[in-house]
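Support request, please re-run this one:
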Amino acid sequence: MNLDTVRAALLFGGCRKNGGTALQFAAADAGKHLIVGPDGTVTAAYAGSSADVELADLAALQTLAKSGEAARCFATGSLVKNTWTDTALGKSYDSPLRIVGFGSAEKAGGAVAHGMWLQAKYAHPFWLPFNRQQAILQCADGLPAGSYSFAFGDTVGTIGFVSKGVAFHFTLTQAVPAGGLLAGLHGCWEAAKPYDTLKIISYAADRKTVLETVPIAAGAAGTDLGTLTIAGDELRSGIYRFGGGDNAWSRSALRQYLNSDKPKGEWWTPQSRWDLPPSEADAKDGYLYGADPALTAALCAVKVQTGTEVTYDKVIVPSLEQLYIAPQQAGEGPALEYYERLNGSGTPYALRGTYADLRVLAAENRKLPQTVRLRTAQQDDACRTWSVGTKGQIGEGPVTSAWRFTPMMFLGG
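Re-run finished. Output below.
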């Protein structure tokens, strides 16, 4: 496909100038930001400094991206104007999208999509946890009021409570209805005697209504509800997942939020029998619900590798490798061109290093740095993911912490 034809006929909707001659572009403009006016006139926006990219519409940008020619028209770092609205509050934010890479990606079914990766320049205007701690047990047939006990089948930590063979019990004063859940024991491997910080929480079948919170006591008593292990089983969740949360991107509440165009109360659904919703599920509408419909229409769901799992997503948060950070385990890349150029050294950023270049400011206050969540799981801890902190430090933290994030998406098809 001829590049001038792509630029003139697609980018500008067939705009003609000079007596019907197709608009021409000098080779010197290639790789630079271009500002496109509503009448189709074009000027090079800069020769090295940052500037917004203004296009007639996002459909034209998508068409150019799909042609595979976008990298010849724009430089990584270019900004696409964008507005995102927190529809739950009726508040809109100027949220420009930075072009961070070009190339191809795989769609479901194996077809190849051509396009560009766009990432929000500023951190999302509110916090959201990656996931909540899972429940321990779903009570398919319910449980009557009474005393119950569990035992541990594995040892976690060194304090002693979560040790193979150790049992504990608790007493429910209210019945758990069919489909209800038992949760709790948060941080159980760090609990010391007399274990008074540990509780069992019973939920109604809606996974939201707390029926009661009760203490535990050492030793077996009452009805045996089985053995709790690291891996879990068909009935019981795993120790790390109910004690600290699940760091799998495929099952995360954050992934559901980013890829949903549904309102509050509808964008979250349980990904396992033990899942519990974040409070934001009933307070905030899905990310795409507040996005420009033209942007949503231009996005393409593409293959995303996170650890050993594959998902097909329109919107993600970046991985360590995509930010040109040396990972614990490779496979979530490749590095995006923008971050390779930002780094400039040819050597990836190091884990737990601090790099001011990677700091992200808040969408609502562009003087306020934010900790932003990455989707890469911490390999040494099943309850944590990696992040970039307020000083640009590359660290990790609990999946249950509510942090900001920078939505990233593939525009093309």
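Helices lie at 3-11, 58-67, 70-73, 239-243, 253-258, 293-298, 337-343. The longest strand covers residues 97-106.
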